[in-house]
Amino acid sequence: MAEINSQNALDFAFNPSSIAVVGASEQPFSFGYHFLRHLLDYGYKGVIYPVNPSKSSIMGLRAYPGLLSVPTDVDFVICCVPTDKVIPLLEECPVKKVKIVHLFTARLSETGRSQAVDQEKQIQIVADNLGIKLIGPNCMGIYSPAAGIAFGYDFPCRVGDIGVVFQSGGSATLLIQMGSLLGLSFSKAISYGNAMQISESDILDYLRDDFDTRIIAAYFEGVKNGRKFVYSLTETSKTKPVVVIKGGKGDSGTRSVTSHTAAVAGSQNIWKNVIQQAGAIEVNDLNEMTDLLMLFEYLPPVRGKRVGIIGGGGGKCVTSADLAEEAGLLVPPLSKGMRNKLKSIVPDLWDWLGNPMDFSIWGDSALKAMEAHQLFVESGDFDIVIIQVSDDNPLIPDMWSSIIKMEVEDIINLAAKKSTPVIAVLCGAKPGYDDLQNERWKTLAQQKSRLIQAKIPTFETTAEAVKALSRFVSYWQKRTAVS
Fold first, then answer.
1. Residue 4 burial by Cβ neighbours in a 10 Å radius (0-12, 13-18, 19+)
2. Domain ranges in the chain?
3. Cβ–Cβ contacts within 10 Å for residue 257, how many?
4. How many Å apart are CA 117 and CA 115, to the nearest integer?
5. DSSP string covering 339-387, please?
6. 195, 109 in Cβ contact below 8 A?
7. Average pLDDT over residues 92-108
8. How far does CA 250 lie from the centroid of its chain?
9. pLDDT, tens digit (0-9, with 9 covering 90-100), for 450-469
């Protein structure tokens, strides 16, 4: 079999015509069970070959005692067998023209034990000699919604445009699940673990050229080749937003990195400088990452820092203005043109209203919510408008619920006009299970879902909104400066 490069091999991993799950099982505590079940649950349309020497069928599929007994060639192998069985499996792969192997198999160099480190080196030597490309070991592998391949439950089946390159499988799972709740969907995702052969740089290069990927989310603990990584991250960031979490910044995090993926964490300052100079965007955790991905997914480029803030009570408006300015955004006063319009609508209040505009001042006046929102959005005075849904108003439940629903409907109608970009802040608090039947928390959850379905970036706090927005605007300003 002619040797293929990492990019071609990844094509086969994300779009295989056949998959063998070696170590397939019907035991729910076995990952051989879960990887096989995912292929069935997510509707993989290729041919599936469960491999298990002690089973004739698994989950209604014919099982095979070994890879060599599979009747056709195989594009992709998911390996769920112990470390001592990996090399014998790899030696069978060329016979079946296997292009790439996902080594879920773990407990190798990440343990730090000399025998395990030697085992991993031997696996790599054998794979190199045979021309077999490896993902992993010690990783969750591939999520390709277009192909019906996944490594977790509750992943969206819809195909999106966010590519994911994560060293950690658990964190990748959480990102996809959390992102799904915000309406995000993904083109391709890969958890690559110890990066024995296919590295973070190879995956960045692949996603950079992938037509289906517009935005990239990345989690790195360490890199195999620093020079290659800097080049790949820089080149990728020139064409697509790359949002990065660096795992293992502090002393304890650095120690955890070694036991997790056998990566070399490196200096925090060096990493920070590399990410910044490459043009990527560093965030601290998955919440910050999903917030920023939501902006890239739903908004056009925003290159100005002028923010209009409207809605909510007086205290919320004051703190919102402070938070926006602390984040590096501008909260300009209302222009003369806007004041003249307000004067014609609410002559008794116009000189009292400003930016932010306090709902408690104008909420019972002739100025209606939709009209106020529209004034901000159509003024041309702001680069983006933050609408704080008035979830803090002190009205009886029925009236409160009605106002919240009306405001959300206004925001959705306004955003559909696609003038000045709009983001929403809707406090969901932190209700427990027993609170979910309460009308307040149920209403807020329902209205947040409506906003997300309308593709409006929606945040629980203004602090989260302005932090993400500041990074978003800075990214587009830098892109403009270098283009």
1. middle
2. 6-135, 141-298, 307-482
3. 24
4. 5
5. HHHHHHH-TTTTTT--SSBPHHHHTTSS--HHHHHHHHHHSSS-SEEEE
6. no
7. 94
8. 23
9. 999 999 999 999 999 999 99
- Which residue blocks in 79-211 are alpha helix, DSSP H? 86-92, 114-130, 169-181, 200-209
Average pLDDT over residues 159-184: 97
Q: Measure CA of the first residue to CA of the last residue in the chain; give whole Å.
A: 44
**Mean pLDDT value across residues 383-406:** 87
Structural contact between residues 63 and 56, judged by C-beta atoms closer than 8 angstroms: yes
The torsion angle over the Cα atoms of residues 392, 427, 357 and 308, rounded to 10 degrees, is: 180
Distance CA 397, CA 399 (A): 6
Class of domain 307-482: alpha beta
141: left (phi over 0), alpha (psi -120 to 50) or beta: left
pTM of the model: 0.92
Beta carbons within 8 Å of 428's beta carbon, 6+ residues apart: 441, 444, 445, 448, 460
User: pLDDT tens-digit profile of 273-313?
Assistant: 999 999 999 999 999 999 999 999 999 999 999 999 998 88
Indicate whether 367 pLDDT > 80.
no
**Same topology between domain 6-135 and domain 307-482:** yes
Of all residues in the chain, the percent with pLDDT exceeding 90 is: 70
Pull the structure tokens for residue 304: 């100005």
Rounded to 5 degrees, what are φ and ψ at 463? -60, -45
Domain boundaries 141-298, corresponding CATH code = 3.40.50.261
Task: State the CB neighbour count (10 A cutoff) for residue 380.
Answer: 11
The residues, ordered by sequence, that sit 6+ positions from 176 with a Cβ below 8 Å of its Cβ are 143, 152, 155, 156, 164, 186, 189
DSSP H helix total and E strand total for the chain: 17, 17
Q: CATH number of the domain at 6-135, please?
A: 3.40.50.720
User: Pick from 91, 121, 92, 94: which is nearest to 3 by CA?
Assistant: 94
3-state SS class at 160: strand
**Closest by CA position to 162, among listed 255, 263, 328, 293:** 293
Predicted confidence (pLDDT) per residue in 193-222, tens digit: 999 999 999 999 999 999 999 999 999 998
Contact (CB, 8 A) for 249 and 443? no
Measured CA to CA, the distance from residue 405 to residue 370 in angstroms comes to 12
**Amino acid identity of 301?**
P
pLDDT at 257 over 80: no
